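Continuing the series of single-chain predictions for the mutant panel. This is the parent chain; the variants come on the following pages.
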Amino acid sequence: MKKGYIAFAALCAAALASCTCPSAGEQRLRPSEYVSTLVGTQSDFSLSTGNTYPAIALPWGMNFWTPQTGKMGDGWAYTYGVHQVRGFKQTHQPSPWINDYGQFSIMPVRGKDKIDENARQSWFSHQSEEARPYYYSVYLADHDIKAEITPTERAAIMRFTFPESDESGVVIDAFDHGSYIRVMHDKRTVVGYTTRNSGGVPDNFKNWFIVRFDRKIRDFQIYDGTKPVEGEQLVGEHALVRVGFETRRGEQVTVRAASSFISQMQAVQNLKELGKDEFETVKAKAQARWDEVLGRIEVEGGTTDQYRTFYSCLYRSTLFPRKFYEIDKNGNILHYSPYNGEVLPGYMYTDTGFWDTFRSLFPLLNLVYPSVNAEIQAGLANAYRESGFLPEWASPGHRGCMVGNNSASVVADAILKGVTPEEDVITLYEAMLAGRRKVHPTVSSTGRLGHEYYNTLGYIPYDAGINENVARTLEYAYDDWCIAQVAKKLGKTNDAAMLEKASQNYKNLFDPETRLMRGRNADGTFQKPFSPYKWGDAFTEGNSWHYTWSVFHDVEGLIDLMGGRKGFAQMLDSVFVVPPIYDDSYYGFRIHEITEMQVANMGNYAHGNQPAQHIIYLYDYAGQPHKAQWWAREVMDRLYSPKPDGYCGDEDNGQTSAWYVFSALGFYPVCPASDEYVVGSPLFKHATIHLENRKTVEIGAPGNSPENRYVGKMTLNGKVSRRPFLEYHEIKDGAKILFEMKVRK
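Parent structure:
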């Protein structure tokens, strides 16, 4: 790829040596203590400030837990503005729009009539709530009970502090749409399964669970919904049970819970993750694990709120995709396949949408957590073997959501950076090629919808009856470029040449009149009428102002189409200058992404949705990096915070968070599957990335301040850099990067 260049002057070696010095007298907390899991929870259908929930989990853990404020089946499981808790839910939900699967809940109660989700709910206050990645606690006012949770990867331990009552109890709700509950003869253990899901599962899908108390149950009652049933077990539409205890004030009941997608016996095996550890020991181990993962990036020389925002974003960047594999009693890795319903050996991960996460989440994994992505890539190879397709949106199997074939980017970037297990490289290359020529028979977002047009005309026509056709074409072109890079690496010269040619298909939709991407009919004419403000239609959750820039792999080619760097920069300026007007006629209502663009006060720039998130960094290619630096800081400062409304749109499984992590470090992967990072404006005076190879990337910006947001000079390993770019091969074995920050007059 060609690059835009700017001149940087030399920096002295003494200044370089200062880049790792900690701030004098700075008092630091453990990384996990800066994280608030409530960031992004002040959201609803009309306006997203993250659309997150407080996930109580380990990094990439199979099972998450969350307090449940929403009704059963509601995608908004926890909403900051709701004041009642209905239960503590095991969840696998990646997004409120995708919803959940493998869910059941546990709720401590006082009162024998507190059974269904409305009767058992309790008022709570955020003042009596502590929400950490490794620990959650809340006071349930209506029951006078303190509830606490701490996790392992596939299990959790809960501690309930009860009042004095002969009506203390716990409700275990296996949810509706088909479930099973059984109270075991030891009168300490409840087992069952839930089948509730939102799609993407085979017919035999079950999530088997086990719940074990530290004392005998005094009494119990099983229900099918609200109807009490006799006996110790029930297979029904909606199975739940209330187990009872007599408690003294302050008496604690400990509950151990785990689940499995494989079998009841495997759920028992997964419960062994807790061992004989007591609550505080499990909590300490969970916090240590989070400190290990979050501590892979150390930042210094910022404000407390900046630390809180950074580590809260890094926490979100290390949740998804989640593990969908389990470990049997002999230590073997195996998984229930969400693609064919079989139990098979090997890794599997799920709950991510590549349309979002190919942009910066997976590049972050490749740089900082490559061993995790190696497992993910092995799981993708298994997904292809089991279904004939790479997933584009998985939860847990193929889901109909978004557009593009961005698995190609995720797979290619890992192969090119040497992350993918060698034994899976050829399979994954074949999977990428196969995905160019077919579409899933029941899930049209998997594979390439419209491939027949794309592979013959070089674009998907506006009048072909395929929605979001421009977005699909642009993404397919980039995806072809990604596959081409792997073909080159493997010596597949004919494939590479064909794919490189196809990667230029984006040019077929460039309208020289408007200098924007525009729908094109099968006869070669451009769509009429055309409004660059129209959301959807030819585009996906955005308009032409957003999608025109989706040429990650050939920015120089896009510059040429726009008449050179000056014209290119003017068009970039227009994104931020054009008023936030919109046309929502395609949807028939104003989708929340439109509102988030409007309220940001950044013109037509829509950071709350992924197609626009790289636009800021394109100024570097135009020879105007100071504008990238200005806008990167503006977005970090104005659109992110450690508060419940701390995002400016959907967080989307780590993508919006990973944007912040990269940007705060001072560089960003505009084009995954390339070797390139584009320089922005580092947020902290010092940062250290601890690589898995035991090397470090040390980033220094000692003169950094809100005013000194501009990069005057940059050195890499003591050598002056004359371009606003870094390359992966320059930092993968450790590096020292020093920025001299200045005020721009």
